[in-house]
Amino acid sequence: MQRILSSSIIVLAIVIFGGVVWLTEAQHLTGVTLFALWIGAFILTTVLVTLIKVWQLRLQQTKDGGSDDKR
């Protein structure tokens, strides 16, 4: 499970930043627009990674809590 989540985080970051690079090249963005796009991509990636980690912790707690109930 840990390996799948780590892989999904890496793929997610590659897709987001790859999209930013593609958009930058396609639209010939420069200056403030380019800076805002990169900052937005960084914030989006950070939020999504945080949500995945929180989800992972909840799954772990549910798994641990479920095993305690069986004892």
Summarize this structure as a short list of keywords or feature phrases:
0% strand; membrane
Largest sheet: none
In DSSP terms (H or I, runs of 4 or more residues), the helix count works out at 2
The count of DSSP E runs of length 2 or more, i.e. the number of strands, is: 0
Q: Helix content range of the residues, please?
A: over 70%
Fraction of residues in β-strands: under 5%
What does this structure look like?
The protein is built from 2 helices and no strands. It has 71 residues and is mostly helical. It has one domain. Keywords: Membrane, Transmembrane, Transmembrane helix. The chain crosses the membrane at residues 5-23, 35-55.
In short:
This protein has one domain (2-64). Helices cover 93% and strands 0% of the residues. It has two helices and no strands.
Give a topology summary:
Elements: H1 2-27, H2 31-70
Helix pairs in contact: 1-2
